[in-house]
Design goal:
single chain; disordered N terminus; globular; Protocatechuate 4,5-dioxygenase, Chain B; three-stranded mixed beta sheet; 11 helices; alpha/beta; MEMO1 family protein; MEMO1_fam; nine-stranded mixed beta sheet
């Protein structure tokens, strides 16, 4: 297994879906992110200090508002948000088969708004403690983490990333890794996942309601047909159950509510663990 060394500097992971999933021009993107955040009002939950956020990763036309409902908890109190100096970002593999958990080789993740640094020292510690492999191929074209970066760059520009793609993996190892992150006190956990895929509108609403019930109950038995990021999500829910935390819904809809027909829709949910 290749090990990360902190001396490998300036290896940049270029933005792969800028101009596709979100605007590629910096000023247009910044305006879009700002508008999405301004449109979200989480008065009921704005005083919560999140231990983790669950947010979707489709194009901003489809799920940007739902994602912003989660990130608005950081925007509501910038001074409080600055406690997060690192972000453990977990999401599923869409393009390259993967068993286990994969870290990038990159030192920087590029976005149209600027680059975000990877916490190589933290990744090295994760490799020592957990079964984390370095897979540049897994990260190269993966969009699920990338689409979160414009929000994170806007809200936490100095935070460093711990970006991991979670393939087929049991909840327990993922939960162990997340609990390690929480023990560091300066790490916000972000799980990137969409919900059901390509069902009729009514069927998707039923499936996503069942999935939401599992999330709010902190059950770690969600399957990929319910959420494409199920393996990372289950780890989060198990860790939250172990720590006696709670979950709350911030937003729930599907692509039939936002920017697509209702014959084959994708579900999107945003949740906070606190």
């Amino acid at each position: 297994m290749n090990k990360i060394t902190v001396n490998e500097m300036n290896h940049v992971r270029p933005a792969a879906v800028a101009g596709l999933f979100y605007p590629g021009q910096p000023e247009i993107l910044r305006s879009r992110v700002t508008r999405l955040l301004d449109e979200q009002h989480q008065e009921q939950h704005r005083r919560l200090i999140p231990s983790a956020l669950v947010v979707p990763h489709a194009g901003y036309d489809y799920s940007g508002g739902v994602a912003a409902s989660g990130y608005s908890l950081l925007a509501s109190d910038p001074d409080r948000a600055r406690r997060w100096r690192r972000i453990l970002l977990l999401g599923p593999n869409h393009r390259v088969p993967l068993r286990g958990i994969a870290a990038p080789k990159a030192d920087l993740f590029a976005t149209p708004l600027g680059s975000m640094a990877v916490d190589q020292t933290g990744l090295a510690e994760l490799q020592q403690r957990f079964d984390v492999q370095v897979r540049e191929d897994v990260h190269a074209l993966e969009h699920c983490l990338e689409v979160q970066l414009p929000f994170l760059h806007e809200l936490l520009p100095s935070a460093k990333l711990l970006p991991l793609v979670v393939g087929q993996e049991r909840p327990e190892p993922v939960a162990d890794l997340i609990e390690w992150a929480w023990d560091q006190k300066d790490i916000l956990v972000v799980i990137s996942t969409d919900l059901s895929h390509y069902h009729s509108y009514d069927e998707a609403c039923r499936i996503d309601a069942d999935t939401e019930h599992a999330i709010l109950a902190l059950r770690s038995d969600i399957v990929p047909e319910q959420a494409c990021g199920a393996h990372a999500l289950n780890g989060l829910l198990l860790a939250a159950h172990r720590r006696c935390l709670s979950a709350a819904r911030l937003a729930l809809c599907n692509s039939g509510d936002t920017a697509a027909p209702r014959d084959q829709v994708v579900g999107y949910g945003s949740y906070v663990i606190f």
